Amino acid sequence: MLEVLKRSLEICPIVQRGEYSYFIHPITDGVPLVEPNLLRDVACALFKALDLKDVNKIVVSEAMGIHIGTVLSLMTDIPYTIVRKREYKLPGEVIIGQTTGYSKGTLYLNSVYEGDRIAFIDDVISTGGTIRALLPAIESTGAEVADLCFVINRGNPDIGRAYKSLVTIDVDKDGVHVLDSYF
Ligand SMILES: O=P(O)(O)OC[C@H]1O[C@H](OP(=O)(O)OP(=O)(O)O)[C@H](O)[C@@H]1O
Ligand SMILES: Nc1nc2[nH]cnc2c(=O)[nH]1
């Protein structure tokens, strides 16, 4: 398990965004091509790694949490909501400031309510800025984040609580180096 993910990371291209070495990978970018066997590898590992007991909703973030949220939802029959970069002004919408290693923006959380037990998944964690902003926003609704798992962990940031990652990587100008994996 995770051999397909690890191999795909070791061969993925890097581009410089200023000082930031940005890896380009099917799970985090949708390019190069998203191969079905990679999606299956990731979906099965997420399903095995996450504690989904009594979880009634999956939360993912736009854009690249969406394909992994879709496959996990299909496997588990648990519905999911997407934290969007667009405002809807629906009742209960939570507005969240997002800062990553290379961008700043605003996110909008909908469809999470008091009493929900949430599994949060995302394609990558890097500075942890996004999830540090998202966790209190989800909890402000009265929901509980039961478990959270990132497919790729680059940087291993402290987010104030335990979290899971399928693979931990280091990135430099030469490429991606896989340091650790959950399975
Ligand atoms: O730990 P952080 O430094 O906050 O980085 C992680 C965030 O970066 C990526 O999203 P991005 O904002 O690039 O949006 P995208 O999914 O639309 O590419 C990823 O999906 C996370 O949400
Ligand atoms: N694709 C991609 N997404 C990221 N999100 C945070 N860092 C990165 C990165 O280096 N590559």
TrEMBL record:
Q: How does it assemble?
A: Homodimer.
Q: Where in this chain does the record put each Phosphoribosyltransferase domain?
A: 74-156
Q: What is this protein called?
A: Hypoxanthine/guanine phosphoribosyltransferase
Q: Which GO terms describe its molecular function?
A: hypoxanthine phosphoribosyltransferase activity
The record's SUPFAM superfamilies line, in alphabetical order, gives:
PRTase-like
Listed GO CC annotations: cytoplasm
Q: Which UniProt keywords apply?
A: Cytoplasm, Glycosyltransferase, Purine salvage, Transferase
* Keyword tRNA processing appears in the UniProt entry: no
Protein role: Catalyzes a salvage reaction resulting in the formation of IMP that is energically less costly than de novo synthesis.
Concerning Pfam families, the annotation shows:
Pribosyltran
Cellular location(s): Cytoplasm
Q: Could you tell me which species this protein originates from?
A: Methanocalculus taiwanensis
InterPro entries associated with the record: HGPRTase-like, PRTase-like, PRTase_dom, Pur/Pyrimidine_PRTase
